[in-house]
Structure formats: structure tokens, C-alpha cells
Amino acid sequence: MFLKVQFVENRALSGIISHFAVYSVEYNCES
After folding, report:
1. Averaged over 8-27, what is the pLDDT?
2. DSSP one-letter code for 18
3. Is the dihedral angle over the CA atoms 12, 16, 22, 25 positive or is it negative?
4. Dihedral sign computed on CA atoms, order 16, 19, 24, 27
5. Superkingdom of the source (predicted)?
């Protein structure tokens, strides 16, 4: 149960980080 929850949280965190990285790249291109 704990490992399953931790896995889901890690996946969500990875998604947020990758989304933030894409946002940063788009922001730099617009500047």
C-alpha cells in the first residue's frame, strides 16, 4: 500500500517537474 502510494506520488512529481521544464523552455523562447 505504502509503496503503491509512494510510486503514484513520485510519478505525479515527475510529471510536475517535466511540465515545469517544458514551461521554462517555452518561457525562455518567448523572452
Report:
1. 84
2. H
3. negative
4. negative
5. Bacteria
